[in-house]
Design brief:
single chain; four-stranded mixed beta sheet; 36% helix
Amino acid sequence: MSLGASGGASLSSSPSSRIHVLGAGAVGLLLAAHLRQSGRPITLLLRSQSAVDRFRRNSSCISVVNDWIKAHPTRKLFLASDPGAGLAPWKAADVQAEAPSSTESSEKPMISRLILATKAQDTLHAYWSVKERLCSQSTVVLLQNGMGVYEAIQREFYPSPQQYQKELSTDIPTFIIGTNSHGCLRSQDKDEEFVTHHTAFGGCQFAVRPSLLNPPPPLPESALDMLTTLSSQALDVSITNWSDLHHRLLLKLAANAAINPVTALTDCRNGYLAPPPPDTDSQCADQDYYRSMHSYLSSACAEISAIYARAHPHLHNELTARAIEDYVTHIAQTTARNRS
């Protein structure tokens, strides 16, 4: 995909730097708060006008609790001067909010930068609610678990791009695909609807998804700006190419597909799928149980590798059963206390 100014439909002569965030769950709130803290104007797109009213009564603030500090190796540095300072919620203020369905799309301004952080199963409906406010100069960041969301959007809203290339060239935005490994939990307390708990510090990776149009259009200004903005956030963000991110997403999918069903069926924590550290024999006396659990994991990884070999033959040497098992075992170790 080439770099440069984009033609087609226009957002305005001076594109806004405002970022719209659709999906006010734990991850959406975390990213919106960090972007606002860095100085970007943010608009949350909430489900209903009543949610917008509640947010405004909450002083139009997003609160973030850095619970990850409690378990971080450098926690003593954070907490040395004031034991409570690092754990106190910090607020991102002056965040705007609106409901996509509150007025006709034609009455609302175009969206130049959109982060779509809904659950995967809600993505198509969420995208439909803002589609008329997007154009070729818009950039959409997809941040969901799993894979296939981008393909589903293309099938549903932009079918046969080659056949209708001229018409679609002014309609299809640029897509950036993201993956997140930060641990986040949204507060279940009704009085803390817009509070997110940052429970584990991970990282984020983003890549531009190559366009289905041929030749591909140049990247719009909004895409270049979003990549720069995302990479500057204090969330261990990296910008990579689509090939590398695709490989990472396949490994992440394998981890979910292997760990979740095995631990759910056996009613155990993720840590039981990984060999115990050598100094934990006293705590993990039942070594036979660990070996039995890991055999289930090995079988699942071998099956996943066989599926990937059929679906992605060009990655056969990289997505071997051993490579997948090593990755999944690492994830099971780092999430040892989690349950499916």
